[in-house]
Amino acid sequence: MQKFSCNAPELADVSDLGHNRCVRPVDFHPRALEFIRAQTPSIRRQIGEVLRDLQKGIDLGMPLSRPMPVIAPGVHELRVRGEGATVRVFYFVRKSDALLVFHAFQKKSQKTPQREINLARQRLQEVLDATIES
After folding, report:
1. Which residue segments constitute the domains of the chain, with CATH numbers given?
2. If we measure between CA atoms, which residue out of 29, 30, 39, 50 comes closest to residue 102?
3. Which partner for 71 in 49, 59, 66, 75 could form a disulfide, CB atoms 3.0-4.6 Å apart?
4. How would you class 39 by CB atoms within 10 Å of its CB: exposed for 0-12, middle for 13-18, buried for 19 or more?
């Protein structure tokens, strides 16, 4: 796994756009990435923009993101709507190492289904185990 470092040289002088900030990498569970890639361009764009903000260290709040301690401490849920679909993306921010995106699904009810919570816990553990082994 790539370690997070702010000591890398800047590639271009675009400071007026905010692109030279130190950003943390994003590690995806393969199934979460597959789900996100299958979404509409609008939803993919929204998810990408929010993940970029998280990489820069911007703290998100409601209604865009909310804590999900029922899955694990430090887990949050992105809430994205577009073109008749409501999508949820679970992520975990490791202090300075990486942003872990481990589960995504289409939400069809008010309450998060227990099946999705259980699957999210399993996938988070898989991603954490894989980063420890690397």
Report:
1. 23-133 (3.30.2310.20)
2. 29
3. 75
4. buried
Q: Characterize the bridge pairing of strands 99-106 and 85-93.
A: antiparallel
pTM for the predicted model, two decimal places:
0.78
Coil, strand or helix: which one is 83?
A: coil
Asked whether 31 and 116 are in contact (CB, 8 A), the reply is: no
Nearest to 26 by CA among 44, 51, 45: 51
C-alpha span between 66 and 63 (Å, rounded): 7
Question: What's the token pair of residue 76?
Answer: 């949050």
**Containing H/E element for 104?**
strand 99-106
Contacts of 121 (CB under 8 A, 6+ apart): 71, 72
Distance CA 23, CA 1 (A): 15
